Amino acid sequence: MIIPIKPWLELVEESASPFSGGKRSLGLQSGLVLSADPAADEFRLGGSGYRNLYEGNPMSDRQEFYHEPIMGEKILEILEPLEGKQVFDGTLGGGGHTQMCLENGAHVIGCDQDAAAIEHASKRLAHFEDRFLPVRGNFAEMDQLLSDVGVDQVDAILLDLGVSSRQLDDGSRGFSFREDAPLDMRMDDRSELTAAVIVNHWEEAELVRIFREFGEERRSRRAAAEILKARAEAPIETTFQLAEIVEKAVPRVSGKHPATRVFQAIRIAVNRELDVLEEVLEKTVPVLAPGGVLAVLTFHSLEDRIVKHFMRRRSAPELDRPEWPEPRPNPDFAFTLPFRKAAIADAEEVERNPRSRSAKLRVAIRN
Ligand SMILES: C[S@@+](CC[C@H](N)C(=O)[O-])C[C@H]1O[C@@H](n2cnc3c(N)ncnc32)[C@H](O)[C@@H]1O
């Protein structure tokens, strides 16, 4: 079977990241350097046709909510969000990636389960009028969300996983042990499961499991035992209380706060982050038009493993087993991978924006 390949994909060596320097050069110059006033900065693009991130944007609260979209330039190259293209941004957040796509002419359906993100991005991007459509919902319901707005297929899907800096920095949401707040951690406040429910009501074995599986915490038993001991005396209600309890079980090593892994595990459990990721990946197959692009940014190894396995399984034309006389066609074959290794942010971006340090970008093209 011949799979049409975009010209830029042919420049990429299979095992190499196309973005971390070397032979790849498509006219985009790296180095988006931001000053204290983002409006004064330019998205320096060398003749690619992609437009300035801030051009013509009347957003007045730009400074307040600004954060640089992770691997923005690379994502623009990949999605090619030009006029006439339809993009589904499953993780609208502050609207940074969506705005870049809109600036380049595409229509964008921007989905987020967080009401505050939808409200903020709707205001920020209102001047794009009917080219931007915000929808509130879980990206795992992508097929239903799209059919509700009369769309069958899209040309590109972007998932920039995890919580946004706004959510982390909002002391009232309970995502961070740096601020004292009620134990919440819900991205979607319509959900009944909060961090307080998990911490105060889940069985010890379940706590151990999530700390181990979602937090990769080596002291998961001791952390769970400390939590049980504390909650037998009084309910654990705040982030500071929880952090203090976990600190008794987990030693402080390197610069990381001892509660980092336990907080990550609880957040993943509250938002069912790994389950919904598996669900949405399967749903991209019927929703992407032929030649359409799936781009997923992950921030920890659990997410990345799921995306990697999905893309590998869905991109093998044939399957082979020792007991079979010959390879058989893979019924799940749906994508071509332009590169097998994840792309990462370059050193300049990591310096500008430390959150990009752990980002991994994987891309698949619908056959
Ligand atoms: C890292 S931020 C996205 C930032 C965005 N790309 C930007 O440039 O501003 C992730 C956002 O995705 C949302 N989110 C995470 N998981 C989601 C899911 N399963 N369904 C819908 N939204 C989700 C979060 O609420 C958060 O606002």
Could you characterize the architecture of this molecule?
The protein is an alpha/beta fold and 367 residues long. The chain has two domains: 7-166 and 288-366, Vaccinia Virus protein VP39 (Rossmann fold, 3-Layer(aba) Sandwich), CATH 3.40.50.150; 192-270, Orthogonal Bundle (DNA polymerase, domain 1). It has 14 helices and nine strands. The protein has a seven-stranded mixed β-sheet with strand order 3-2-1-4-5-9-8, with helices on both faces. Strands 6-7 form a two-stranded antiparallel ribbon. Helix 8 crosses helix 11 and helix 12 packs parallel to helix 13. It is globular. Residues 69, 90-91, 93-97, 111-114, 117, 138-140, 160, 162-164, 187, 276 line the site of S-adenosylmethionine (SAM).
Mean pLDDT: 85
CATH class of the largest domain: Alpha Beta
In terms of structural class, how would the helical and strand content be classed? alpha/beta
CATH architecture of the largest domain: 3-Layer(aba) Sandwich
Unreliable stretches (pLDDT < 50, length at least 5) are 1-66
Note the overall shape.
Answer: globular
Order of helices and strands: HHEHEHEHEHHHHHHHEHEEEHE
Count of alpha/pi helices: 14
What name is given to the CATH topology of the largest domain? Rossmann fold
* The number of domains: 2
Helical percent range? Answer: 25-40%
Bound molecules: S-adenosylmethionine
Largest sheet: 7 strands, mixed
How many angstroms separate the termini?
10 Å
What is the H level of CATH, i.e. the homologous superfamily of the largest domain? Answer: Vaccinia Virus protein VP39
